[in-house]
Predict the 3D structure of the following.
Amino acid sequence: MALEFPHVDVVGIDFVPPVLLSAEAIPPNCRFEVDDANLSMTHYKDCFNMVHVRSADQGINDFNGCLYELAQTLRPGGILVLSTGIPQMYMEDYTPFPVTEPGEENFTWIQKLLGHTYQALLNRGNPSVEACLHWVKWLEENPNYENVLQSDTFVCLGAWKPGLDETAKWVADGMKIDLMHILPAWKPLLLSDGVPSEQIDFMIEEATKELRDETIHAQCSWRYTTATRTKAPYQERMETPLDVEPGPRPKLMISAKSKSAAGNRD
């Protein structure tokens, strides 16, 4: 972002220091800071015209509360951009692959592996696994934001879809390669959830083959939600809800017996 917009100052924040080849790789208009988004952000009060939170939802304990913290960092009229990849694979018609077993209809190893990972996160009590399902509601209820918009973008895992232009092919192939590299990183989480090591290795191997050989036509979805900081003075959060929502909660991942899942394309 600092390279694309050389006229702005960019601050990158993460829980761990960035892995860079050299200090020279950092543009002069960019700096990195180690911080925890679960803590107070008041030291960045009124610092930014735009805040971009990317693929950080699962590391935030209280995402709704974090939206209030981020509002303090934005100047009046500033823009908040939330983006994350939805942990769900979609078919050619944009309906989600169900979590099924080998031999059943629409079975894929990548979706089975995702299903195990998703359940492992839920079993750990991670309240932000499904946070992106509530972004619009939380922002609309937050008195510090206005002009809330949301859009889902589907990306093919591999350039299997006819009619893709060169840019779309490059993105599709890159997304496939990135996911193949990410799969092994899920093993520690699955081990902690009690999944046998041999089973994990087998699922990763089979899912990698599906992606590499493009034996399935799958797509992933990226969710982008934006809002504008109001010009009114900052308002504190009045209460801390005990749960995300009362009653049945939407799910990102579905089983073969389920009829629908959140994130479907209308």
About this structure: The longest helix spans residues 166-182. Residues 250 and 262 are 6 Å apart (CA to CA). The longest strand covers residues 74-90. Residues 262-266 have pLDDT under 50 and may be disordered.
